[in-house]
Amino acid sequence: MARGRYGPIGLTCAVTGGDVLPSQSRAIPCSVDAIVRESIAAVDAGASIVHLHAREPDGRPSGSAALFVEMVQGIRSARDTVLSISTGGAPGMSAEERIAGVQAVRPEIGTLNLGTMNYEGYPTKSRWPLVNTDWEQRILDSSGQVVFRNTLGMIRDFAAEFRRLGVTPELEVYDVSHLAMARFLLDEGTLEGPVRVQLVLGVLGGVQNGTEDLMMLYQAANRILGPDLGVLGVASTGYPGQFRIGAVALGLGLDCRVGLEDSLRITREKQASSNADLVLRAVELAQLLGRPLATAGEVRSELGPWWRAADVVRTLGLGSAMGVTGR
Ligand code: KMH
Ligand code: ZN
Protein backbone atom coordinates (compact mmCIF):
# COMPACT_ATOMS: atom_id res chain seq x y z
CA MET A 1 0.00 0.00 0.00
CA ALA A 2 1.46 3.34 -0.97
CA ARG A 3 0.37 6.29 1.14
CA GLY A 4 0.00 8.30 -1.99
CA ARG A 5 2.78 9.94 -3.89
CA TYR A 6 2.45 13.17 -1.90
CA GLY A 7 1.71 11.49 1.42
CA PRO A 8 3.98 11.81 4.45
CA ILE A 9 7.08 9.64 4.45
CA GLY A 10 8.04 7.57 7.47
CA LEU A 11 11.80 8.03 7.31
CA THR A 12 13.77 5.49 9.33
CA CYS A 13 17.33 6.07 10.48
CA ALA A 14 19.24 2.84 11.18
CA VAL A 15 21.90 4.36 13.38
CA THR A 16 24.41 1.61 14.12
CA GLY A 17 23.43 -1.91 12.98
CA GLY A 18 25.28 -5.09 13.81
CA ASP A 19 27.26 -5.64 10.62
CA VAL A 20 29.34 -2.55 9.93
CA LEU A 21 32.64 -2.50 11.81
CA PRO A 22 33.84 0.47 13.88
CA SER A 23 37.20 0.32 12.04
CA GLN A 24 35.36 1.06 8.80
CA SER A 25 34.14 4.46 9.99
CA ARG A 26 34.72 6.61 13.04
CA ALA A 27 31.14 7.84 12.69
CA ILE A 28 29.55 4.52 13.75
CA PRO A 29 28.16 5.06 17.27
CA CYS A 30 28.95 2.23 19.71
CA SER A 31 28.51 3.38 23.32
CA VAL A 32 25.02 3.98 24.71
CA ASP A 33 25.73 7.71 24.91
CA ALA A 34 26.90 7.88 21.32
CA ILE A 35 23.92 5.88 20.03
CA VAL A 36 21.52 8.11 21.98
CA ARG A 37 23.23 11.27 20.68
CA GLU A 38 23.17 10.04 17.09
CA SER A 39 19.51 9.00 17.40
CA ILE A 40 18.47 12.40 18.74
CA ALA A 41 20.40 14.17 15.98
CA ALA A 42 18.77 11.90 13.38
CA VAL A 43 15.32 12.76 14.72
CA ASP A 44 16.16 16.45 14.71
CA ALA A 45 17.30 16.10 11.10
CA GLY A 46 13.92 14.59 10.13
CA ALA A 47 13.82 10.87 10.93
CA SER A 48 10.42 9.63 12.15
CA ILE A 49 11.67 6.19 13.23
CA VAL A 50 14.97 5.16 14.84
CA HIS A 51 16.10 1.57 14.23
CA LEU A 52 18.37 0.24 16.98
CA HIS A 53 20.85 -2.56 17.53
CA ALA A 54 22.95 -2.69 20.69
CA ARG A 55 26.74 -2.70 20.90
CA GLU A 56 29.15 -3.18 23.75
CA PRO A 57 31.28 -0.07 24.36
CA ASP A 58 34.07 -1.55 22.18
CA GLY A 59 31.60 -1.84 19.29
CA ARG A 60 30.97 -5.59 19.50
CA PRO A 61 27.32 -6.37 18.60
CA SER A 62 25.32 -7.22 21.71
CA GLY A 63 21.98 -8.70 22.71
CA SER A 64 22.03 -7.13 26.16
CA ALA A 65 18.57 -6.14 27.37
CA ALA A 66 20.16 -3.65 29.78
CA LEU A 67 21.86 -1.81 26.93
CA PHE A 68 18.58 -1.57 25.00
CA VAL A 69 16.81 -0.22 28.09
CA GLU A 70 19.51 2.43 28.62
CA MET A 71 19.43 3.51 24.98
CA VAL A 72 15.65 3.72 24.88
CA GLN A 73 15.47 5.65 28.14
CA GLY A 74 17.99 8.15 26.78
CA ILE A 75 16.16 8.62 23.48
CA ARG A 76 12.62 8.64 24.88
CA SER A 77 13.47 11.15 27.58
CA ALA A 78 14.77 13.55 24.92
CA ARG A 79 12.49 13.13 21.90
CA ASP A 80 9.12 11.72 20.89
CA THR A 81 10.09 9.26 18.20
CA VAL A 82 9.03 5.82 17.02
CA LEU A 83 11.47 3.06 17.90
CA SER A 84 12.23 -0.04 15.86
CA ILE A 85 14.30 -2.67 17.64
CA SER A 86 16.22 -5.29 15.69
CA THR A 87 15.66 -9.00 16.20
CA GLY A 88 18.12 -9.65 13.37
CA GLY A 89 20.98 -8.84 15.74
CA ALA A 90 24.25 -9.95 14.27
CA PRO A 91 25.65 -13.23 12.95
CA GLY A 92 26.25 -15.79 15.68
CA MET A 93 23.70 -14.44 18.19
CA SER A 94 21.26 -16.89 19.76
CA ALA A 95 17.50 -16.48 19.32
CA GLU A 96 17.27 -15.43 22.99
CA GLU A 97 19.82 -12.66 22.48
CA ARG A 98 18.04 -11.50 19.34
CA ILE A 99 14.61 -11.09 20.96
CA ALA A 100 15.92 -9.63 24.24
CA GLY A 101 15.71 -5.99 23.16
CA VAL A 102 12.09 -6.24 22.04
CA GLN A 103 11.15 -8.00 25.28
CA ALA A 104 12.93 -5.40 27.39
CA VAL A 105 11.54 -2.23 25.85
CA ARG A 106 8.33 -3.14 24.00
CA PRO A 107 9.01 -0.76 21.12
CA GLU A 108 6.40 0.27 18.59
CA ILE A 109 8.18 -1.79 15.91
CA GLY A 110 10.44 -4.85 15.93
CA THR A 111 12.07 -6.39 12.88
CA LEU A 112 11.02 -9.90 11.83
CA ASN A 113 13.33 -11.62 9.36
CA LEU A 114 11.57 -14.22 7.25
CA GLY A 115 14.08 -16.77 6.03
CA THR A 116 17.43 -18.43 6.62
CA MET A 117 19.93 -17.09 4.12
CA ASN A 118 23.52 -16.24 3.36
CA TYR A 119 24.15 -12.77 4.74
CA GLU A 120 27.29 -10.84 3.90
CA GLY A 121 28.36 -7.33 3.13
CA TYR A 122 29.95 -7.33 -0.32
CA PRO A 123 33.43 -8.96 -0.05
CA THR A 124 34.21 -7.14 3.16
CA LYS A 125 37.59 -8.72 3.67
CA SER A 126 39.12 -7.50 0.44
CA ARG A 127 37.62 -4.02 0.82
CA TRP A 128 38.59 -3.54 4.45
CA PRO A 129 41.80 -5.50 4.92
CA LEU A 130 42.81 -3.63 8.07
CA VAL A 131 40.76 -3.58 11.25
CA ASN A 132 41.81 -2.41 14.70
CA THR A 133 40.55 -5.21 16.94
CA ASP A 134 40.65 -8.99 17.19
CA TRP A 135 36.88 -9.30 17.33
CA GLU A 136 36.55 -7.41 14.04
CA GLN A 137 39.28 -9.58 12.51
CA ARG A 138 37.34 -12.70 13.53
CA ILE A 139 34.27 -11.31 11.76
CA LEU A 140 36.27 -10.67 8.60
CA ASP A 141 37.74 -14.17 8.82
CA SER A 142 34.25 -15.69 9.05
CA SER A 143 33.29 -14.14 5.71
CA GLY A 144 32.02 -16.89 3.43
CA GLN A 145 30.67 -18.94 6.34
CA VAL A 146 27.86 -16.69 7.60
CA VAL A 147 24.35 -18.11 7.85
CA PHE A 148 21.57 -15.76 8.95
CA ARG A 149 19.35 -18.25 10.78
CA ASN A 150 15.61 -17.62 10.69
CA THR A 151 13.86 -20.98 10.82
CA LEU A 152 10.09 -21.21 10.65
CA GLY A 153 10.12 -22.13 14.34
CA MET A 154 12.11 -19.01 15.24
CA ILE A 155 9.86 -16.78 13.15
CA ARG A 156 6.75 -18.20 14.85
CA ASP A 157 8.31 -17.79 18.31
CA PHE A 158 9.34 -14.19 17.62
CA ALA A 159 5.91 -13.39 16.16
CA ALA A 160 4.21 -14.85 19.24
CA GLU A 161 6.32 -12.57 21.44
CA PHE A 162 5.47 -9.55 19.29
CA ARG A 163 1.76 -10.39 19.60
CA ARG A 164 2.03 -10.86 23.38
CA LEU A 165 3.90 -7.57 23.81
CA GLY A 166 1.83 -5.50 21.38
CA VAL A 167 4.79 -4.82 19.08
CA THR A 168 4.27 -4.30 15.34
CA PRO A 169 6.48 -6.60 13.28
CA GLU A 170 8.28 -5.02 10.36
CA LEU A 171 8.78 -7.88 7.93
CA GLU A 172 12.27 -7.77 6.42
CA VAL A 173 12.08 -8.95 2.83
CA TYR A 174 15.41 -9.64 1.11
CA ASP A 175 13.93 -11.73 -1.70
CA VAL A 176 10.63 -12.92 -3.17
CA SER A 177 10.72 -16.11 -1.08
CA HIS A 178 10.23 -13.97 2.04
CA LEU A 179 6.98 -12.64 0.61
CA ALA A 180 5.84 -16.22 0.11
CA MET A 181 6.71 -16.85 3.77
CA ALA A 182 4.75 -13.76 4.84
CA ARG A 183 1.74 -15.04 2.87
CA PHE A 184 2.03 -18.43 4.60
CA LEU A 185 2.29 -16.83 8.05
CA LEU A 186 -0.76 -14.65 7.36
CA ASP A 187 -2.75 -17.64 6.13
CA GLU A 188 -1.91 -19.77 9.16
CA GLY A 189 -2.71 -16.89 11.52
CA THR A 190 0.83 -16.35 12.86
CA LEU A 191 0.68 -12.81 11.42
CA GLU A 192 -2.31 -10.50 11.09
CA GLY A 193 -2.72 -8.03 8.25
CA PRO A 194 -2.23 -5.37 7.23
CA VAL A 195 1.47 -6.02 7.71
CA ARG A 196 4.33 -3.54 7.69
CA VAL A 197 6.98 -4.63 5.18
CA GLN A 198 10.50 -3.41 4.50
CA LEU A 199 12.15 -4.42 1.24
CA VAL A 200 15.88 -4.81 1.91
CA LEU A 201 18.10 -4.52 -1.14
CA GLY A 202 21.79 -5.13 -1.58
CA VAL A 203 22.62 -7.77 1.05
CA LEU A 204 24.70 -10.57 -0.49
CA GLY A 205 22.23 -13.45 -0.08
CA GLY A 206 19.20 -11.38 -1.14
CA VAL A 207 18.39 -9.32 -4.24
CA GLN A 208 20.77 -6.69 -5.62
CA ASN A 209 20.12 -2.99 -5.16
CA GLY A 210 19.07 -1.89 -8.62
CA THR A 211 15.88 0.00 -9.40
CA GLU A 212 14.71 -3.08 -11.32
CA ASP A 213 15.16 -5.17 -8.17
CA LEU A 214 13.04 -2.71 -6.24
CA MET A 215 10.28 -2.73 -8.87
CA MET A 216 10.32 -6.54 -8.96
CA LEU A 217 9.89 -6.79 -5.17
CA TYR A 218 7.36 -3.94 -5.11
CA GLN A 219 5.16 -5.68 -7.65
CA ALA A 220 5.59 -9.07 -5.97
CA ALA A 221 4.66 -7.60 -2.57
CA ASN A 222 1.46 -6.17 -3.98
CA ARG A 223 0.61 -9.39 -5.84
CA ILE A 224 1.42 -11.81 -3.02
CA LEU A 225 0.14 -9.83 -0.04
CA GLY A 226 -2.69 -7.89 -1.72
CA PRO A 227 -4.94 -6.21 0.87
CA ASP A 228 -2.78 -7.64 3.68
CA LEU A 229 0.03 -5.29 2.64
CA GLY A 230 0.11 -2.27 4.94
CA VAL A 231 2.92 0.28 5.05
CA LEU A 232 5.71 -0.62 2.63
CA GLY A 233 9.22 0.76 3.09
CA VAL A 234 12.62 0.25 1.50
CA ALA A 235 16.17 -0.06 2.84
CA SER A 236 19.09 -0.33 0.47
CA THR A 237 22.77 -0.77 1.21
CA GLY A 238 25.81 1.18 0.12
CA TYR A 239 26.43 4.32 -1.88
CA PRO A 240 24.71 5.28 -4.15
CA GLY A 241 22.18 2.47 -3.57
CA GLN A 242 20.81 4.04 -0.43
CA PHE A 243 19.91 7.30 -2.17
CA ARG A 244 19.11 5.89 -5.61
CA ILE A 245 16.66 3.35 -4.23
CA GLY A 246 15.45 5.84 -1.63
CA ALA A 247 14.57 8.30 -4.41
CA VAL A 248 12.57 5.68 -6.32
CA ALA A 249 10.83 4.58 -3.13
CA LEU A 250 9.90 8.18 -2.37
CA GLY A 251 8.55 8.57 -5.89
CA LEU A 252 6.41 5.48 -5.45
CA GLY A 253 4.90 6.80 -2.22
CA LEU A 254 6.83 4.33 -0.03
CA ASP A 255 8.72 4.82 3.22
CA CYS A 256 12.48 4.67 3.19
CA ARG A 257 15.41 4.09 5.49
CA VAL A 258 18.90 5.54 5.62
CA GLY A 259 21.66 5.35 8.23
CA LEU A 260 25.14 4.06 8.96
CA GLU A 261 23.83 0.51 9.43
CA ASP A 262 23.28 0.41 5.67
CA SER A 263 25.79 2.81 4.14
CA LEU A 264 28.90 4.62 5.34
CA ARG A 265 29.20 7.07 2.42
CA ILE A 266 27.61 10.40 1.68
CA THR A 267 29.25 10.67 -1.75
CA ARG A 268 31.40 8.24 -3.69
CA GLU A 269 34.53 9.85 -2.26
CA LYS A 270 33.45 10.89 1.20
CA GLN A 271 32.32 9.01 4.28
CA ALA A 272 29.27 10.28 6.14
CA SER A 273 30.32 12.09 9.30
CA SER A 274 27.10 11.16 11.12
CA ASN A 275 23.71 9.55 10.71
CA ALA A 276 22.16 13.00 10.52
CA ASP A 277 24.29 13.63 7.40
CA LEU A 278 22.49 10.77 5.68
CA VAL A 279 19.06 11.74 7.04
CA LEU A 280 19.49 15.31 5.74
CA ARG A 281 20.17 13.98 2.22
CA ALA A 282 17.00 11.86 2.38
CA VAL A 283 15.06 14.90 3.62
CA GLU A 284 16.33 16.87 0.59
CA LEU A 285 15.08 14.08 -1.68
CA ALA A 286 11.70 14.05 0.08
CA GLN A 287 11.40 17.81 -0.32
CA LEU A 288 12.29 17.62 -4.01
CA LEU A 289 9.60 15.00 -4.54
CA GLY A 290 6.92 16.79 -2.55
CA ARG A 291 6.77 14.35 0.36
CA PRO A 292 6.36 15.83 3.85
CA LEU A 293 8.01 14.01 6.74
CA ALA A 294 5.70 11.89 8.90
CA THR A 295 5.47 12.80 12.56
CA ALA A 296 5.87 10.11 15.21
CA GLY A 297 2.10 10.32 15.75
CA GLU A 298 1.40 9.71 12.08
CA VAL A 299 3.64 6.64 12.06
CA ARG A 300 1.97 5.31 15.23
CA SER A 301 -1.48 5.74 13.68
CA GLU A 302 -0.43 3.22 11.00
CA LEU A 303 0.99 0.55 13.29
CA GLY A 304 -0.44 -2.95 13.13
CA PRO A 305 -3.30 -4.63 14.99
CA TRP A 306 -1.17 -5.93 17.87
CA TRP A 307 0.00 -2.42 18.70
CA ARG A 308 -3.58 -1.14 18.55
CA ALA A 309 -4.79 -3.93 20.87
CA ALA A 310 -2.03 -3.10 23.36
CA ASP A 311 -3.07 0.55 23.08
CA VAL A 312 -6.15 -0.26 25.15
CA VAL A 313 -3.83 -1.43 27.94
CA ARG A 314 -1.72 1.70 27.56
CA THR A 315 -4.76 3.98 27.62
CA LEU A 316 -6.02 2.31 30.77
CA GLY A 317 -2.59 2.79 32.33
CA LEU A 318 -2.11 -0.93 32.91
CA GLY A 319 1.19 -1.34 31.09
CA SER A 320 4.37 -1.75 33.06
CA ALA A 321 7.09 -2.25 30.46
CA MET A 322 9.28 0.73 29.64
CA GLY A 323 7.96 1.13 26.18
CA VAL A 324 4.42 1.37 27.49
CA THR A 325 4.86 3.78 30.34
CA GLY A 326 7.79 5.62 28.81
CA ARG A 327 5.87 7.94 26.53
N1 KMH B 1 20.98 -4.93 8.43
C1 KMH B 1 19.90 -4.68 7.51
C2 KMH B 1 20.30 -4.88 6.11
C3 KMH B 1 17.29 -6.37 11.31
O1 KMH B 1 17.86 -5.58 12.00
O2 KMH B 1 16.57 -7.28 11.74
C4 KMH B 1 18.67 -5.46 7.87
C5 KMH B 1 18.08 -5.21 9.21
C6 KMH B 1 17.37 -6.34 9.81
O3 KMH B 1 18.11 -4.11 9.72
ZN1 ZN C 1 18.96 -3.74 11.65
Topology summary:
Layout: E1 11-14, H1 32-45, E2 49-52, E3 54-55, E4 61-62, H2 65-78, E5 82-85, H3 95-105, E6 109-113, E7 117-118, H4 124-127, H5 134-141, E8 147-148, H6 152-165, E9 168-173, H7 176-188, E10 195-201, H8 211-225, E11 229-236, H9 241-252, E12 255-258, H10 275-288, H11 296-301, H12 305-315, H13 322-325
Parallel strand pairs: 1-2, 1-12, 2-5, 5-6, 6-9, 9-10, 10-11, 11-12
Antiparallel strand pairs: 3-4, 7-8
Helix pairs in contact: 1-2, 1-10, 2-3, 3-6, 7-8, 9-10
Bound molecules: (5S)-5-amino-3-OXO-hexanoic acid and zinc ion.
The helix content is: 40-55%
Low-pLDDT stretches: 323-327
Reported for the largest beta sheet, the result is: 8 strands, parallel, barrel
Kindly report the spatial arrangement of strands forming the biggest sheet: 1-2-5-6-9-10-11-12
Mean pLDDT: 93
* Rg from alpha-carbon coordinates: 18 Å
* Bound heterogens, unique: (5S)-5-amino-3-OXO-hexanoic acid, zinc ion
Topology order in helix (H) and strand (E) letters: EHEEEHEHEEHHEHEHEHEHEHHHH
Q: Which secondary-structure class do the elements indicate? A: alpha/beta
Proportion in β-strands: 15-25%
Count every helix, treating DSSP H or I runs of 4 or more residues as helices.
Answer: 13
Number of E-type strands: 12
Shape: globular
The N- to C-terminal Cα distance equals 28 Å
